[in-house]
Amino acid sequence: MNMICESENINDYLLEMNEVNYSHPKIKEKVSELFHEYQSDIEKAKVAFEYVRDEISHSWDIQSKRVTCYASEVLQLKEGICYAKSHLLASLLRSQGIPTGFCYQRLMLFDTPEKGYCIHALNAIFLKSVNKWIRIDARGNKEGVNAQFSIEEERLAFTVNEELGEKDYPIIYSKPHPKTLIVLEEHTDALEMYKHYLPESL
């Protein structure tokens, strides 16, 4: 898939914002644990990806009602849905000067179209050392989901089935999509939010 940058200014993919608050003391503390000056951008990206994928629980997987949004909050509570986890991964990588954006897929919410669709969030990162954008999905692995860090071929959590109404959106957004932020802001029960209120399209 040909990805399209929402902004032509690469610095827009390094900005700090409410959800990507990498100046927060909690984020700074984790940054000092994960990274050191001798790591390449690829090594830093892999370390951050695997940390968010493996150490931050997906709310649905652990059946938690807690809704998280800001990167610092996701880190402190160690849980969130894919939207929240993408905020944390962006925060960690932007703190290291690695341009990081937000990408989305339209997926079946469960196992059939009749059960509805949802927007799923993942990240795209620009690696200067190989001069290209790659997509990575730190949603969290489980049975049937095996996302890995790869600069050669995408190894995402989900493969879209266009025949069933799923799709990949090609845009690399510099900010989280407003539809994803609204749903996190408006709900206090992550399980109900996940089952009934996630946006179905962008």
Q: With helices defined by DSSP (H or I, 4 residues minimum), what is the helix count?
A: 6
Low-confidence stretches: none
Helix content range of the residues, please? 25-40%
Principal-axis shape: globular
H/E element order: EHHEHEHEEEEEHH
Gyration radius, rounded:
16 Å
Distance between the ends: 18 Å
The neighbouring-strand order within the major sheet is: 6-5-4-7
Q: Kindly report the average pLDDT value.
A: 97
Description:
- With 202 residues, the protein is an alpha/beta fold.
- 30% of the residues lie in helices and 17% in strands.
- Helix 3 crosses helix 4.
Summarize the structure.
The protein has about 200 residues and is an alpha/beta fold. The chain contains six helices and eight strands, in the order E-H-H-E-H-E-H-E-E-E-E-E-H-H. Strand 5 (about 115-125) and strand 6 form a beta hairpin.
What is the topology?
Blueprint: E1 4-5, H1 25-34, H2 41-55, E2 57-58, H3 71-77, E3 79-80, H4 82-94, E4 100-108, E5 117-127, E6 132-136, E7 167-168, E8 171-172, H5 178-186, H6 190-196
Parallel strand pairs: 1-8, 2-3
Antiparallel strand pairs: 4-5, 4-7, 5-6
Helix pairs in contact: 2-4, 3-4
Please name the defining characteristics of this protein.
17% strand, 6 helices, 202 residues, two-stranded parallel ribbon, globular, four-stranded antiparallel beta sheet, alpha/beta
